[in-house]
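Provenance

Sequences were taken from public entries as deposited. Structures were produced by running a predictor on each sequence independently, with no templates supplied. The record for Protein HTATIP2 from Picathartes gymnocephalus is shown for reference.
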Amino acid sequence: QAVVDFERLGEHAAAFQGHDVGFCCLGTTRAKAGADGFVRVDRDYVAQAAELAKAGGCKHFVLQSSRGANAQSRFLYLRVKGEVENLVQAVGFDRCTILRPAVLLCKRQESRPVEWITQQFLGAVARVFPGAYSVPVETVARAMVACVLQPGEGKVKMLENGAIHELGKA
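Predicted structure for Protein HTATIP2:
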């Protein structure tokens, strides 16, 4: 592992050298970082990390994005996710896989009461409609690894929530 300062990511280019595959799950919240901080972390840091990975020899970049990502969205979160998807694709990796999970089900260290209530509700819904509105983070992680182990099908592959569930079972 290499610890990097994202504010000076260019100084850490060596950490991105010699890897065939790059995985990116970097993100924050607007509540935690403010609107500018959210954009900086979720778009700018991710795009710069992708560029450094490509320059370092990365062939396959796997990005965790979000359901509904759209660079034209009126909603900041979805717009930024859509913008970063476009930026990562533009880097020109041999393969690029973008996962668009719905609400991530996970345990967090910090308190997020509204998210906790939403997760409890969606966890119950998931028992009846698995894959419809949420996905456990462990399933996303398994899907990210599985997509790298499968033969490539095209330069860019988008995996929506249902496909993430299917691939995450493998």
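The CA atoms of residues 29 and 38 lie 6 Å apart.
The chain is about 45% helix and 15% strand.
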